[in-house]
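Recall that a protein's primary structure is simply its ordered list of amino acids. Everything else, from secondary elements to tertiary packing, is in principle encoded there. The following example makes that idea concrete.
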Amino acid sequence: MPSSDTLLFRFGIIADPQYAAIAPNAAMDRYYANSLAKLAEAIEVFNGEELSFVMTLGDLIDGSWESFDDILPVYEKLRHENLFLLGNHDFAVPAEHLASVSARVGLASPYYAFSCRGWRFVVLNGNEVSTSAPPEGHPYRELAAERLAALAATGAINAHRWNASLSDEQFAWFAAELDAAEAARQRVIVMNHYPVYPPNEHDMWDRERIIDLISGHDNAVAYFCGHNHVGNYGKTGGCHFVNFKGMVDSETENTFAIVEVFEDRLEIRGFGREESRTLVL
């Protein structure tokens, strides 16, 4: 067994660049075009570190298919493995491109899992059942409208069109991944665009069943997400829920993080507006 002071590995985190070649929305503190320079700065920091990978927690772009042509080349300067998951704004593109978003960022599947140094990472597609991401005419659009209406009828704070949910198929896959990791004695970090805890207006529509599933697995120790640009943190059971702050916010100040994995803790080293945290396991 490694010592608790032995660094096992580290990885980088970026949340919500939401790049677009458009004027800022000062009222929301979003400076879309400035994300290219912020991303380049983050990559320069990452390239000076020994990292196993860098994950972007969704919302690479905002509102234009052509924005991918501007932001993806910035990532080519990264010397580490570059991983993506998708956010709601990645699907704010013309309808004819909706089915191609995953392929455009190089994803063979919009949800997937991988292992690193004996840890398992489960990467969710939080957009699967939503009112915006499925191609027009897809049954998940109709299901999303039903789920949103049912949630809104309860007065839930997260009953908004900008949130979404997992299909039953993906949820079953998620459960199977947690079970397989448990059998393999692997700790798990879940990654998704959308938060689920603490309760917030940006949470997944199906937050309760996701929390229940995670809470039933002692090996699920952290859940990392973006979407809520101001950031958030909570812990329930043995799992830490960390909502990283959005890169698109603020005219000049950046935000990103490096996560260092130890046997007994995760050390989050925040840059710019991102907070540093020690997550005891």
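The mean pLDDT is 97. Residues 168-183 form the longest helix (16 residues).
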